[in-house]
Specification:
The structure holds two protein chains of two kinds. Chain A is an alpha/beta fold. Helices cover 40% and strands 20% of the residues of chain A. Chain A has 20 helices and 15 strands. Chain A has helices spanning 36-43, 52-65, 79-92, 100-104, 107-112, 121-127, 138-141, 145-150, 161-164, 177-181, 193-204, 212-223, 233-238, 243-253, 270-279, 288-293, 307-310, 313-316, 333-337, 376-386; strands spanning 2-7, 19-24, 27-32, 69-73, 95-97, 130-134, 167-172, 184-187, 226-231, 258-263, 299-303, 323-328, 340-343, 353-356, 362-365. A five-stranded parallel β-sheet of chain A has the order 5-4-11-12-13. Chain A has a five-stranded parallel β-sheet with strand order 8-7-6-9-10, with helices on both faces. In chain A, helix 3 links the parallel strand 4 (69-73) and strand 5. Chain A is globular. Chain B is α+β, with helices and mostly antiparallel strands. Chain B folds into two domains: 2-60, Electron transport complex subunit B, putative Fe-S cluster (3-methyladenine DNA Glycosylase II, Chain A, domain 3), CATH 1.10.15; 68-148, Alpha-Beta Plaits. Chain B has helices at residues 2-5, 20-29, 38-42, 47-58, 80-84, 86-91, 136-139; strands at 68-70, 109-112, 115-118, 146-148. Chain B is elongated and about 55 Å long. The chains are: A alpha/beta, B alpha+beta. The A-B interface holds A 18-20, 30-40, 43, 125, 139-140, 143-144, 146-149, 152-155, 161-162, 177-178, 180-181 and B 75-80, 82-84, 89, 97-102, 110-115, 139-143.
C-alpha cells in the first residue's frame, strides 16, 4: 500500500515545496520533481543505531570541560535548532558563527537590513525582465533555480517566459554550466569585477562601449523595468569583499529601473540564521576562523557543516588538534575526524522545523516518514539542559 | 545513403516496400525494424552487411521509439527541459509551465528520483505530420544529457 505526500526539500536554499514523495511500508520509494541533490536526501538510507544518551552525555562533558569552546556551522539546520544553539553559546559564553561572513562578507547583513534592495523569488518569476547571475553557478549549486524562478518559467507578468519575455546573463570567470544555458555569458577576469561595474555604469551614462557584448548587456539593462542580480560567492571574491562598491553599483543601476539583489546562499537555512540574529539584535562576535588559526579554541560543536571539505586545509587541520563534536545527518570528512559524531535526521524527510529560503520566505518542513534518528533541535535541547 | 548501401539493393519487395531506398528511409526513421528485410538474415552473402547494419543501429537501442535518449549519468534533475518543453507548457499550464512539478500525466518530460524521464514522447513536436526541428530540451540542458538520435 503506497501513499503520496507533498514535501519540502532541504537540498539547497531554493526550498522547493513541490516534491512528490511515494511511501511504501514506511520507506521512501520514489521522489518526484526534486533535483539530483534533493532526491539523494530523500532516497538514501539512514545510519546504524547508536546510544544517543551516551553520546549526549559525552557532548555535555566535552563542552563543560572546555575552556574556550565554539559553535560553528548552523546553515543546514532548522531555525528552531539555530535558536537552541544560540542559547547554548549564551550559556557557555562562547563564540558562535555560521558561514555567512566567510562566504559572503557583509552581503547578507546588507540585504537583511534593506541597505541593498531585495525581492522574493516569486517576484522574480512573475516580473523579472533580466536575471544577472554574477559569480553564481546556480545550475550546479541550486539546480532548479532557473527552471522554477529566474529564467525559464512563465509568470504572472511574464507569460512568455524565457523565450520572449526574459533575458538572462551569466558573469563569471569561466563558462560555467549556468553560463551555458543563459542567453549571454560575460567573462570577467578574477578580481576585475569592480572595473566591470565601472564600465557598465559608464556605458549606461553614455560612454562608448568597449565591446559588442557590453553594449548588448547595457541595452538590456536600459530596457528592463525589473532586474535582479543573483549574487554568488564569486562576486564577493571578485570585489575583494568591497561591499561599498556593490552598494554604489546597485544604486547606479536603480537609475535605469528597479534593480534588486538576491544572495545565492549555500546552506538551506543560512538566510534564516542571519535574519534571526538580526531580529534578536545579536551580532557575531569575533571570527571562528581567526580563533581556530590562533589556537584560541579548544572544543568545537559543529552543526550541519563540513569544514574539513569547505575550508582550506591549513585552517581545517586545526580541528584535528582540538575536541570536535559533529551533529550531522551525513558521513563527511568532518565526521571522520570528529571525536564525537551524533547522527541526526534530515528536516523535511524524517523530522521537521522551519527554514528560510534565500529570499527570506519562510517554509515549514514536515517529516514524510518516521525514523529513530533525533532532530538537531532535540539533540541540542538535551545538550542545553545538561549544561 | 550509407544505410541503403548496406542493404541487398535488389528491390525484392519482401519487406513490403517497393524499393530498398524506401526501406532505408523507414529504417532510419525507426518506422520499421531491420528484421523486416528477411534476405539480410536468411542469405549468407549479406552477413557482413547485416553485422554492419546492426552495429549502426546499436546506439539507437537505448532510445525510445521516437529517438529521445537521456544520459542519466549527466542529468542533474534541474528541470530546465521540463519547464522549457513547449508541449509541457501547453499540456500543463498550471504546473510545469510556471516552474512547478507536473499536475497531470500529459507531460513529455518530468523529473523522477533526481533525473529526467520521458513519457508520451509521440506528442513531441519533432514527430508526426507537422514536425519541426524543436530543440528546446537540448539547448536548455547544462550538461548535454538529452539527445535525439
Amino acid at each position: 500500500m503506497s501513499t503520496q505526500v507533498t514535501a519540502t526539500c532541504p537540498g539547497c536554499s531554493c526550498l522547493c515545496d513541490d516534491i512528490e514523495v511515494v511511501i511504501e511500508e514506511s520507506e521512501i520509494r520514489e521522489v518526484g520533481n526534486a533535483c539530483r541533490k534533493g532526491a539523494s536526501l530523500f532516497l538514501n538510507a539512514d545510519h546504524p543505531a547508536y546510544d544517543l544518551d551516551a553520546a549526549i552525555d559525552e557532548a555535555i562533558e566535552i563542552l563543560k570541560n572546555a575552556k574556550s569552546p565554539a559553535i560553528f556551522g548552523l546553515d543546514n539546520t532548522t531555525i528552531e535548532a539555530q535558536r537552541i544553539a544560540i542559547k547554548i553559546s549564551e550559556k557557555l559564553g562562547c563564540m558562535i558563527e555560521d558561514y555567512s561572513s566567510i562566504r559572503y562578507g557583509d552581503l547578507l547583513n546588507l540585504v537583511v537590513s534593506s541597505r541593498i534592495k531585495t525581492c522574493t523569488l516569486d517576484d522574480v518569476r512573475d516580473r523579472a525582465d533580466i536575471s544577472i547571475f554574477w559569480g553564481s553557478d546556480a545550475m550546479s549549486s541550486q539546480p532548479r533555480h532557473l527552471s522554477r524562478f529566474s529564467y525559464f518559467p512563465r509568470g504572472e507578468h511574464k507569460q512568455k517566459g524565457w523565450e520572449f519575455d526574459r533575458y538572462a546573463i551569466s558573469i563569471d570567470i569561466y563558462r560555467s554550466p549556468t553560463a551555458k544555458v543563459c542567453r549571454e555569458f560575460l567573462k570577467v577576469s578574477p578580481g576585475q569585477d569592480p572595473a566591470l561595474m565601472d564600465e557598465i555604469l559608464g556605458i549606461l551614462s553614455g560612454k562608448p562601449p568597449g565591446s559588442k557584448e557590453l553594449l548588448k548587456f547595457s541595452n538590456e539593462i536600459k530596457k528592463a523595468d525589473f532586474g535582479v542580480i543573483f549574487a554568488g560567492s564569486g562576486l564577493i571574491h571578485g570585489l575583494n569583499r568591497d561591499m561599498d562598491k556593490l552598494i554604489w553599483f546597485m544604486e547606479g543601476l536603480n537609475e535605469y529601473g528597479e534593480f534588486y539583489l538576491i544572495p545565492m546562499v549555500k546552506g538551506y537555512n543560512m538566510r534564516g540564521f542571519v535574519e534571526m540574529m538580526e531580529r534578536a539584535q545579536k551580532r557575531i562576535e569575533g571570527s571562528f576562523l581567526r580563533a581556530l588559526l590562533d589556537g584560541g579554541i579548544d572544543a568545537a560543536l559543529i552543526v550541519g557543516a563540513d569544514p574539513m571539505s569547505d575550508l582550506p586545509y591549513s585552517l581545517s587541520k586545526k580541528l584535528l588538534d582540538i575536541q570536535t563534536i559533529v551533529i550531522d545527518p551525513r558521513d563527511t570528512p568532518t565526521t571522520e575526524i570528529a571525536d564525537l559524531v551524533i547522527h541526526t535526521g534530515i528536516a523535511g524527510v524524517d523530522n521537521g522545523g522551519s527554514a528560510m529560503r534565500m529570499d527570506g520566505v519562510e517554509f515549514e518542513l514536515v517529516p514524510c516518514i518516521e525514523r529513530d534518528t533525533p532532530s538537531d533541535e532535540a539533540v541540542l535541547t538535551r545538550i542545553l539542559e545538561g549544561l | 545513403m550509407e544505410v541503403y548501401q548496406l542493404l541487398p539493393m535488389t528491390n525484392c519487395k519482401k519487406c513490403g516496400e517497393s524499393t530498398c531506398m524506401a526501406f532505408a528511409v523507414k529504417l532510419i526513421r525507426g518506422e520499421v525494424g531491420l528484421e523486416a528485410c528477411t534476405p539480410l538474415f536468411e542469405e549468407d552473402r549479406y552477413k557482413d552487411k547485416l553485422s554492419k547494419l546492426q552495429e549502426l543501429f546499436e546506439t539507437v537501442e537505448g532510445a525510445t521509439e521516437t529517438g529521445l535518449v537521456i544520459d542519466t549519468d549527466k542529468c542533474t534533475g534541474c528541470g530546465n527541459c521540463v519547464v522549457a518543453c513547449p508541449v509541457n507548457v501547453a499540456n500543463d499550464p498550471h504546473g510545469t509551465a510556471v516552474g512547478r512539478g507536473p499536475t497531470n500525466d500529459r507531460v513529455i518530460l518530468r523529473v523522477k528520483d533526481g533525473v529526467v524521464v520521458a513519457s508520451n514522447v509521440h506528442e513531441c513536436r519533432r514527430f508526426g505530420k507537422n514536425r519541426i526541428l524543436c530543440d528546446l530540451c537540448i539547448v536548455t540542458c547544462p550538461s548535454g544529457a538529452i539527445e535525439f538520435v
